[in-house]
Amino acid sequence: MNSFISHNALLLLLFLFFAKGTITFAQDEVTDQDSIMLTPPGRVVINNIYVVGNEKTKRNIILREITLQTGIYYDWEELISLIQADQKKVYNLQLFTSVEITPLLTGSEQIELLVAVTERWYIIPNIIFNLADRNFAEWWTNQNRDLSRVNYGARLIHNNVGGRNEKLRIGAQFGFVRSFELMYSKPYIDKKQKHGLSAQFNYFTQKNIPIKSSNNKQVFYQNETEDVLRKTNTTLLRYTYRGSYYNFHFVTIGYSNTWISDDVFIQNPDYFLHDDNTLRYSLISYTYRHDNRDNIAYATEGQVLSLGLNKYGLFNGDDVQDIEFTLNANKYKRLDNRFHVVSGLSLNYFFGQQQPYTLVRGIGYNPNFIRGYELNVIEGQFVLVHKNSFRYKLFETGFDVGDYMPLDEFSYIPFKFYLSANFDQGFVNDKNKLPENTRLTNTYLFGYGLGIDMVTLYDMVFRFEYSINNQNESSFFINFRAPF
């Protein structure tokens, strides 16, 4: 994370210098190189916390992430450790391109704490131009680079409404999947900043849809007249409780309504598991999430744990009655300045014997994948995946384009490159043992290979990987998100 003290921070530093006297550390002896060894005090107390650079973001949103408090004595080593942790927490708000917390010694045991941030560009008119398929390899190989499978449209995203870290997203999409979306989230609705709410509405239609899988690959269908085959609208309301810095609780209630054409039933009579063109159900879910990573977009240190329980069908009239359990646990361990290892476990389990095809899970659907099997979907009621990467930081650089870019938020473009050695393994249990998919279901799977990961502006991630699976199939894959 690149960081620096802004112009405002320097002004504040000068103010503290002249207002309270010279900022000094205890001076030790002078070495032969005439360098001065600075010895910090054993303990210090924070008199004030100053926040600079937050032109839009409210001060309380930043202070919510900071453990350090005024009026409390800290051992110096403890202070430095807490500063490093607090920097990561503020950065992981994803509101700033840089964060630096600096202790300014103004007396023998007195300090001022300076929090200097550089804000991102929050209002993003987003042009939608993406592939409708699960990943790039699916589109390139299985769908023969069909340009009709492209989505296009526009989306307006505001990532910091009112400076309170509220999110607003509204968009319309055309092309392969036509959709409309509206989402608003308010992370804190109380003064203590523990409770939050969000609401989301999605509507989409499709003329070409996956109707089943065969030989562990998706089968798509479109009728001759290119009619709409599927319409879906979903409404969700979510409550969030954040009792501590790294622990979150989510309770979501919602309603889903999906209509399909009669032609879909001809192709797959079990698409909905009941004799009706409409699938309606209510749902409620609970998720616990512990997240203590140095960078939530591409972590090199820390851990994240997510446990979820979803109940589909709350009333007797609902068309689905099932329970789903999910688990995702990732551990990131930094070995030194260049090497780190990552290990992640994903589990998904449906209690029911069979699900409507709109709820089918498996390897190949995010977040469950095994490198080397990007072209496949391995579907079932129990999914277990263990992913591993050993990464080496090749180099880090950046370009100052301020002379050509009028917006300060985009004036510096950073790049980090990592070499990654990968090994993934997993298993899918299909209770129904569908004969058309037995090649890869109910059997041990693994894949391995090498890759290059690139992390750039606003924590965007690009992965270029060559992978081989235990079916002796190999290929080069391009992905646009972090694997963990």
If you had to describe this structure to a student in words, what would you say it looks like?
The protein is mainly beta and 484 residues long. The protein has 2 domains: 7-119, Ubiquitin-like (UB roll) (Roll); 123-386, Beta Barrel (Porin), CATH 2.40.160.50. The protein contains 5 helices and 26 strands. The strands form 5 sheets. A 16-stranded antiparallel beta sheet has the order 7-8-9-10-11-14-15-16-17-18-19-22-23-24-25-26. Strands 4-3-6-5 form a 4-stranded mixed beta sheet, with helices on both faces. Strand 16 and strand 17 (302-312) form a beta hairpin. The two termini are 19 Å apart.
Task: Describe the structure concisely.
Keywords: Membrane, Signal, Transmembrane, Transmembrane beta strand. This protein has 484 residues and is mainly β.
List the helices and strands and how they pair.
Blueprint: H1 7-20, E1 26-30, E2 36-39, E3 43-52, H2 59-63, E4 73-75, H3 76-91, E5 96-105, E6 110-119, E7 123-131, H4 136-142, E8 150-161, E9 166-175, E10 177-186, E11 195-206, E12 209-214, E13 217-221, E14 230-241, E15 247-260, H5 262-267, E16 278-293, E17 302-312, E18 322-334, E19 339-350, E20 361-363, E21 378-380, E22 382-400, E23 412-429, E24 445-455, E25 461-469, E26 474-479
Parallel strand pairs: 3-6
Antiparallel strand pairs: 1-2, 3-4, 5-6, 7-8, 8-9, 9-10, 10-11, 11-14, 12-13, 14-15, 15-16, 16-17, 17-18, 18-19, 19-22, 20-21, 22-23, 23-24, 24-25, 25-26
Main location: membrane
Domain POTRA: 44-120
Signal peptide: 1-26
